[in-house]
Each structure stands twice: as structure tokens, then as C-alpha cells.
Amino acid sequence: MSDHEDHKAESLMEKISEKVHDLKNDSSSSSDSDNDNTISAMKSKVFRLFGREKPIHNVFGGGKPADLLLWKDKKVSGGILGGVTIIWFLFEVLEYHLLTLVCHSLILTLAILFLWSNASTFIKKSPPKIPDVAIPEKPVMEMVSSLRIEINRGLAAIHQIASGKDLKKFLSVIAGLWLVSIISNSFNFLTLAYILLVLLFSVPVAYDKYEDKIDPLAEKAWIEIKKQYAVLDEKVLSKIPRSMKELKDKKKV
Hints:
Layout: H1 2-45, H2 56-59, H3 63-69, H4 74-93, H5 98-119, H6 137-162, H7 167-186, H8 189-235, H9 244-252
């Protein structure tokens, strides 16, 4: 009888210990989830350049284009940048013309392949394997479709600005185009495109590497810009009518 009572007492103690253990696990899991939520909330409050919430790799669309810009494959990224640098050097420094360069490249390539194909019988080596090159239809159509969408967006924006509904946007676009004209007056198109490409292959990877140091500096700069813009908006921009209709209404008053 006493053994039976002892067994019951032991089973009761085991149940109580299991309940206590389950309560501890629940409390620890809830505290872990609370800690995770706190960490995620703190991360969301951290200032990120351009207000981004995703990693810089996802900002550039992910996939191969982002890998190229962030130098995930250093050989491919370096090869592209090196090839573009050689092209820029040929056109700008050596002053090659595009048609001349294409013709000379084709002459050299065809001459090497022709001589190699004919000399392979004498030197007892296999002739060169010239691959069949063809442009696939699907990527070209996708690129054209994407380009069409972007052109239509640009035309819609131009139509909205030209309709005279927003004077502030009109003045900002005029100022931006004027700035671009000044920059393009100092560099020709090829040099400007090369500079932009070098920046595209250097700035994102530098930011991805030092974003924890750059973001606090960018936050300070952004706060100062917002202060200066608030002063400009109060003294100048707020007095500019948004449209010609608003300007006429003010004159009537």
C-alpha cells in the first residue's frame, strides 16, 4: 500500500516538474520573440541611405546584375570594367573612330581564323572550332518591352510637366536639365558614360562594405539638407504658385 502511495506521489511530482518546465520554456520563447521584435524594431529605426529597408543587393534587383555591381564575382566584374576602360582608351586617347575600330577588329579576327583553318593541315593540328552565334529572340523582346515601358513613363512625365499643372516640378526639371547641360559641356558623351559606369562599379561596393560608417554621416547630411530646404521652401518655394491657374486666382484677389 505504501509502495502504491509512493508511486502516486512520484508521478504527481513528475507532472508538476513537467508543468514548471513547460512554463519556463514558454516564458523563454516569449522573451526570445520579444528580444527579436526589439532588435528588428531597433534595426528599422536605423537611418539607411535613400530610406531603403532591404539589403543593398536587393535594391539593385538581386541576381546577376547586382552580383556584377557588388563584385561578387571579381573576375567578371573586373573583366567588364577593364573592357570598357580599353574601349574608352581607344576612342578618347588614341582617337579611334567606331567604324574604323570595328573594321580593324573584324579584319584581324577573320585573318587569324582563315590562316589557322588553312594551316591546320600542315601543322597537324585541329582547325579552330568556330561557334554558331545567334541572337535569341526572348531576351531581346524582354529588353525592348522594358525599354518601351520606361519611355512611356518618361513621355507621361513630360506631358504632365508641359501641361502647366505643377510649376514647382517644371522649375525643378528645368534646373536639372540646365545642370546636365553644364556637365555635358565639360565632357563628351563617351567620357561621361565611362565616368558613370566607373561610379556604378565603385560606389555601391564601397557602400556595401562601409555602410555602418556611411549611414550616420548621411543621416547628419540629410538632416542639414532638410533644414536648408525648409528655409528655402518658407522664403521662396511656398510663394511660387503650383499652376498658372493658381497664379491667375492670386492676381484676381
